[in-house]
Amino acid sequence: MATRFDDHFDDSDLDRSVWLPHYLPAWSSLDATAADYSVADSCLTLRIGPGQGVWCEDDHEPPLRVSGVQSGNHSGPVGSTQGQQPFRPGLRVREKQSEHWGWTPRLTGLEITARMDLSPRSMASCWLVGREVDPRECAEICVFEVFGDTIVAGESAEVGAGLHAFRDPVAPEDFATSRVPIDVSRFHTYGLEWTPDEVSFSVDGRLLRTCPTPPRYPMQVMLAVFDFPERGGPDEAAHVPNLVVDRIRETP
């Protein structure tokens, strides 16, 4: 029986055979999309410090800054439209990416134990997305998405989970948020169970919601923290958002 994926982040750096510390670099470059991260105390920390630039600054609206890692990557040649998660029609590859398939789960369980420190202008998320080797295989399964402006400190937050179809002609659009009575600044375990017929989402083992007819193709895993400079007020500008991941694994 194959060993199920399980990363405790026990080394001094990311396992580069699995993780690429960049966010969708085909639309920009590896240099310009490098994550601000560290691996220490058996945790991966993704943060957005003062030096983190705007992602795809001359093209993406609204402006955003992001630190992310992804478990797969590829693109077509420069000038082509073959890339992952294009954010507008006709987007062209700026830097050709080598093929990298570090972890591409399919029809499995997944758990991620994480905490986050967010301001009203930031967000953290874990999601699975089609590899887009076939451009139709582009749907998303969002394990969790938390915006800082939904957090009631120490009490609750709105947790988004579900499916995004994007350009997949078959996958449904089925995404919703639920207010969950947790302190997201402390570690919690966000999970999914993915079968051919449905995908269910949970927080600390409690069912959040279930979506029927999910995509069935292999997907890569994405972890990221985002900052939206146009949101919030001047008091949030100096805040350093972060997402701290203690463990991510496939479950039986």
From TrEMBL:
Residues 1-252 form the GH16 domain. GO terms for molecular function: hydrolase activity, hydrolyzing O-glycosyl compounds. It comes from the Bacteria. Pfam families: Glyco_hydro_16. InterPro entries: Beta-glucanase-like, ConA-like_dom_sf. CDD domains: Glyco_hydrolase_16. Keywords: Hydrolase. This is Glycoside hydrolase family 16 protein. It comes from Aeromicrobium tamlense.
